[in-house]
Structure formats: structure tokens, C-alpha cells
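We emphasize that the prediction below concerns an isolated chain of 287 residues; any contacts that depend on oligomerization or on bound cofactors are therefore not represented. The input was used exactly as deposited, without trimming of termini.
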Amino acid sequence: MPSRRAVGFSLAIGVIYAAGVLLVALSLGYSIGPSQYSLGGLLWRYGGLVVVAAVPVWLAVRFRLITPVVALVLTTAYVLGMELTPPGPTFRDVAELERLAEPTGILVVENGLYIVRYMVNASVWTVGFLFLGLVEYVIRDMWTRVPSVSGSLPWLSIPAPRRRAIAIASVGGLLHAVVMVWYAARLGVTLSGGFEWLLYLFGAVGMWVLAAVPLYFLVRHRLIAPATLLTVFILIDVQAEFTASVEDPHALYFGGWFLYLGILLIVAGIEYGLRRLDVLQRFASEV
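Result of the prediction step, given as a C-alpha cell string:
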């Protein structure tokens, strides 16, 4: 499908998708109507639902990449399944929970908020789906046993030249850093001692490095495992917010990014070593 038609079709599907999810949420009693938000908040939440669906659909119709769409379908099924299967969301006043006589006007939602959290965190899900599509793009460019991508990008030849690989990895790292810093701020990740600015500076640099390194390995050296594992980390991180918990997985991901980077480097080394062994074995068999 031509590029402009693909964009238009994807946005149309995104609007339909967002409308469907919002209708389900409103039918469950969530106060997420347009009057509940400022213009910026409305665009962020409603627009996020459009984009989170439009990006995987665009990757599918433009390049025939299927994993982002599969991930979107599975995520949507999980969110709607948790909302629509018993027990459904229950809205209780704090006074009811604390057995007070006077109502407080503060509502607590039990067994719910999956759609609300999915909507507000749509940007994080979008980054995960986008990285998943990039991984599939490289895999299908590498292996002749799977169908090649349709309408491949000239500037994303695999393996990419060094400068181009650095540019792609830098842009991907910046996208990851911006979204994850926002996500940390939204969740209220803090540091004891009042040095939040230092934590966010450290985390922002780390979020860039954590994504840029495996993406560079992916497009420059065709190492699949690190970028795949990074995508898994992102999706698990944002999925954990569906379940209320005293522990905050994103605080570890954001502040302890060097631990995740170490895992990615180890995985990259293992994959590189296995690739080298395969080359040596083929050379020995030919000799």
C-alpha cells in the first residue's frame, strides 16, 4: 500500500480502536469523558489510544510486519478481558471502606482501572510495539526462510553503515528516554534525600544508553537477542502497572538501568559468540 494511503488507513483504524475502548470504559462507569480533562490531557489520553493502534497497523500495511499487531491484539484482549470478566470494577467511597458515617467524596476503584492505565500509558506501549517491529524487520531481512518485508526503507539497509546505525540507535534511544522519564514522573519515582533532579538526570542518560546500545547492535551487527530482550523489558515494565503493588518495577528499571544493560551486553556477547562458532564450524567443514 502506498505510504500516504497506509498512514490514512492506519489513523482511521486507530480512531475506531480508540472509540471502541473508550465506549467500553464509559459503560463500566469510568469518569474519562472529554469534560474530565483539560485539552492537553484529552489529546494525550485519547490521542494515545489512536497512536497505540495506528503504529502497529501502519507497520503491518506498509511493511507486512505482523508481530506489533499480534502484540496489540493480545494486549487489548488482556485489558478488555480483565475488565469484562468478573469481578468487574467496583467504585467505593473511602467512608464505606473505613466504615465512617460521613461520605468523603473520594472514590476507590477495586478490580478495575485496566483500561484507564492502558490509556494513560499508551506511549510506553507504543514504544514497545515499535521496537518489536524493528526487530522483526531485521529478522526478515536476514533470513531467507521467512518472507521479506514489503516496501523496505532505503535508509534502513541491514547491516546499516556505521553512521546511519549510530543515528538510528540515537533516535531510538532518545524516544525511549523521553517516554520512560515521563513514565517515572507520572508514577512519582523519587529518591530519598531530595535529590530527584539527580535521579532523573541519571535515569534519562541511562534510558538513552539502555535502548541505543541494543538498537545499534541490531541494525549494525544484526544481533537480535539484545533488542528483543529490551522490548520484553519495556512491555513487562508497563504491564506491571496494571496490578497495584507496594513495589514499583519501574523504579528499578529507571534507577537500576545499568543492571538491565549488563544483562543485554551478556546476551549480546553470547549471541555473537554463537554466531562466530557457527562460522568456524562451517569453515572447518568446508576445509
